[in-house]
Specification:
single chain; alpha+beta
């Protein structure tokens, strides 16, 4: 289910399944603002020194 709830473009995970037809959330598709309470932020990019 995590794959169906995660936008492929912005990486946000929504609390509902996204449309397979669009392949992304509505905000990425046409600019319709998403309610901040309907998703979780994408994971932070770790840039740890080796």
């Amino acid at each position: 289910m995590a794959a169906r709830q995660t936008c492929g473009d912005c990486g946000r995970r929504f609390h509902f399944c996204l449309s397979k037809k669009l392949g992304c959330c509505l905000e990425c598709h046409d600019g319709t603002p998403a309610d901040p309470s309907s998703y979780t932020a994408p994971p932070a990019t770790h840039r740890l020194a080796a």
